[in-house]
Write a structure and sequence with these properties.
By secondary structure, the chain is mainly β. The chain is built from no helices and 8 strands.
Length: 100
């Protein structure tokens, strides 16, 4: 059974897009997974309804499910669902939307 998660407020669920190719240093040393930097690119998997403004109106989240976005290396909280790693973060932590 696949677990579903629905972020609350202005939070979004992001799956980091991982570069699976083997990385080597300029000297030919293979860099292990534990020493690699976290990818800064991700794909939006789920979006919350938005946040309430001071006057009580709902301000919807601008990003949509399926969009590719740029995120900070250490932004959000990492969670594991059904063996896949995701990041739950606020919309404010998104650096930009990648348009192709």
């Amino acid at each position: 059974m696949k677990t579903k998660i629905r972020p609350l407020g202005d939070r979004i669920l992001v799956k980091r897009l991982d570069e699976t190719k083997e990385q080597r240093s300029t000297g030919g040393i293979i860099i292990p997974d534990t020493a690699k930097e976290k990818p800064m690119e991700g794909q939006v998997a789920a979006v919350g309804p938005g946040r309430r403004t001071d006057d009580g109106k709902l301000q919807k989240v601008e990003v949509k499910v399926g969009q590719r976005i740029l995120i900070g290396k250490y932004a959000g909280t990492e969670v594991k669902l059904d063996g896949d790693e995701y990041v739950i973060m606020r919309e404010d932590d998104v650096l930009g939307v990648i348009e192709s």
